[in-house]
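Quiz preparation item.
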């Protein structure tokens, strides 16, 4: 309350100042307005004692002390010629606001600012019910009072749940862990597209562990006033430490955690200060105290690297787009509250909604309930769900990514091709996961799991990579007899690899162990500025031929493997169409069931 009184004082001082300014201005205005011709006469008579000219504004004093003002010509020559002769040398002033006018204007601005400020404060006080809670964090404490969310409410991200289980065990009994000297991660970063359930998952972790959950959104840190965000961060951690064990959750952390120094002006400083404070606080607490920081983002790529350093958000959990099974699970979770007709086949809906996020599936169920209500049904029927599906798909920005069945099949064969070639090429990394769930940039993906971190690659490993890369296109060619643009990225990567083998690593026998073309790095930009060609046109042609040979061998190998294992290709593609993603175990089982034909060892030699 004291601060408020202080502001009132400041307010009154300003009012008084302005009042003084206004009266002073009044005194200053000369009493008499006269015509310019009167002035000329007075000058002739020698009555004028002083004169000052500012643009066309002329003011002065007469011998009897009367002050006057008038307007006259704005050029100074006139006065110098006509008046100076009579001994009246005017005082020329620069055109501009007079001192008092500027005081007045400033006063007004200050008053407006202060008035706004006070209105703002008032609102803030009413909002929080507390006086002056400026630097306090707005973190909302969700405790048992609210509906407790558990893992049962989250479907379709079992891997993420598994990874978070360790955190839950720790929060349930921190001492059990620290007694054994275990090191607990300080920060967990949940990454995933919007609507995949990151916020939900974080709340579920708190619910599972039965600990308090402080939640704040990154955008709430970034306020108008410099320093507010930083003090909110401080307060947030203070609150958290008092309530340990607990979870502090920062949603949409990219709002504060953006890479520093890539913005310009405008509130940038404030964000940077807030981020710095966040880093300081993270370093300053020990997870052994029982506070776990969880953050969520859908833009991990823009985060400041400092946030991702060990000891900060060093545990990263991907919350994926749900696959068929995940979608079914999510539909079931949300259908719990709505009466479904016995005839309803949720699995059908799940199969027909590739690319839908959890949030979209939730709204699908809601829309279906609305459709059913509109026709006075007592239960939701299949047709309601189908209509809701179309409605949500239309409203969704990613509707172009909802694959047609034909596209889905093609993508399935493409990815199956990569995976099978990789599985049957001895030098390749094992396949970790295959998916045809559409992503923002690609229709499907085959993920590899390197056995070890590699810094150097042998010739045969590189050849194996080119071969695997060609697997997708080869599969499409075998099944459809043509290709589409989907494989362009694969081709680019394979070509780059082959080019590197020939020109950088000296792996081509024909070209010899020579670095063809110096790579010019523009160090400060960290970009490859291309190669300077210090070889002849003929050499360039030979290089191109060698590159073509490497890629061509890869393609032929991939094709051979797939033709010999066509039955597996069909099987895996079929399974992908059904399930949309296969993990390492499922894939391996499929391949082994089908008696794979391994390629001749020699076929891997170019
Ligand atoms: P994010 O934070 O990733 O953008 P949210 O957690 O806010 O997504 O999800 C929005 C809503 O969508 C949730 O409240 C929930 O009802 C629903 N939802 C999203 N993902 C799931 C999921 N995996 N399981 C169940 N419901 C989900
Ligand atoms: Mg969210
Ligand atoms: Zn591909």
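Solution:
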């Amino acid at each position: 309350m004291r601060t408020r009184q202080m502001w009132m004082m400041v307010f009154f001082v300003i009012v008084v100042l302005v009042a003084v300014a206004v009266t002073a201005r009044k005194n200053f205005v000369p009493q008499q307005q006269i015509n310019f011709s009167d002035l000329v006469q007075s000058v002739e008579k020698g009555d004028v004692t002083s004169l000052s000219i500012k643009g066309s504004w002329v003011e002065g004093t007469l011998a009897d002390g009367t002050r006057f003002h008038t307007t006259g010509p704005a050029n100074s020559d006139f006065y110098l010629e006509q008046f100076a002769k009579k001994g009246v040398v005017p005082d020329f002033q620069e055109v501009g606001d007079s001192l008092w006018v500027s005081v007045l204007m400033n006063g007004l601005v200050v008053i407006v600012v202060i008035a706004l400020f006070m209105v703002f404060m008032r609102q803030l006080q009413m909002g929080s019910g507390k006086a002056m809670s400026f630097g306090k964090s707005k973190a909302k404490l969700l405790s048992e009072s609210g509906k407790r969310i558990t893992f049962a409410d989250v479907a379709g991200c079992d891997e993420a749940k598994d990874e978070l289980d360790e955190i839950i065990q720790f929060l349930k009994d921190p001492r059990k862990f620290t007694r054994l000297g275990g090191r607990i991660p300080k920060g967990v970063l949940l990454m995933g597209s919007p609507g995949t359930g990151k916020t939900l998952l974080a709340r579920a972790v708190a619910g599972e562990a039965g600990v308090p959950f402080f939640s704040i959104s990154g955008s709430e840190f970034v306020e108008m006033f410099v320093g507010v965000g930083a003090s909110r961060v401080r307060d947030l951690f203070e609150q958290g430490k008092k309530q340990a064990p607990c979870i502090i959750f920062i949603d949409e952390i990219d709002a504060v955690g953006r890479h520093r120094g890539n913005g310009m002006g405008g509130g940038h400083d404030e964000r940077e200060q807030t981020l710095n404070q966040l880093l300081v606080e993270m370093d300053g607490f020990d997870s052994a105290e029982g506070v776990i920081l969880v953050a969520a983002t859908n833009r991990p790529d823009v985060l400041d690297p400092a946030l991702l350093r060990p000891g900060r958000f060093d545990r990263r959990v991907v919350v994926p787009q749900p696959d068929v099974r995940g979608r079914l699970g999510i539909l079931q979770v949300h259908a719990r509250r709505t009466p479904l007709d016995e005839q309803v086949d949720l699995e059908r809906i799940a199969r027909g909604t590739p690319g839908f996020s959890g949030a979209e599936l939730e709204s699908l169920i809601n829309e279906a309930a609305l459709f059913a209500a509109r026709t006075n049904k007592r239960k939701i029927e299949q047709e309601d769900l189908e209509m809701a599906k179309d409605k949500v798909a239309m409203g969704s920005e990613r509707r172009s990514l909802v694959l047609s069945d034909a596209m889905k099949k093609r993508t399935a064969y493409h990815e199956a091709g990569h995976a099978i070639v990789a599985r049957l090429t001895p030098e390749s990394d094992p396949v970790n996961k295959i998916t045809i769930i559409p992503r923002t940039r690609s229709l499907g993906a085959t993920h590899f799991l390197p056995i070890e971190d590699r810094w150097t690659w042998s010739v045969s490993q590189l050849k194996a990579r080119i071969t695997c890369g060609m697997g997708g296109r080869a599969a499409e060619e075998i099944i459809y007899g043509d290709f589409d643009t989907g494989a362009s990225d694969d081709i680019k990567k394979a070509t780059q690899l082959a080019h590197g083998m020939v020109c950088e690593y000296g792996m081509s026998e024909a070209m010899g162990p020579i670095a063809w073309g110096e790579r010019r790095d523009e160090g400060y930009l960290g970009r490859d500025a291309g190669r300077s060609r210090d070889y002849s046109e003929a050499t360039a042609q030979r290089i191109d031929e060698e590159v073509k040979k490497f890629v061509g061998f890869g393609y032929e190998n991939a094709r051979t493997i797939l033709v010999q294992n066509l039955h597996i290709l069909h099987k895996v593609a079929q399974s992908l169409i059904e399930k949309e993603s296969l993990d390492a175990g499922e894939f391996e089982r499929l391949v082994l069931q089908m008696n794979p034909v391994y390629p001749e060892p020699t076929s891997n030699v170019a």
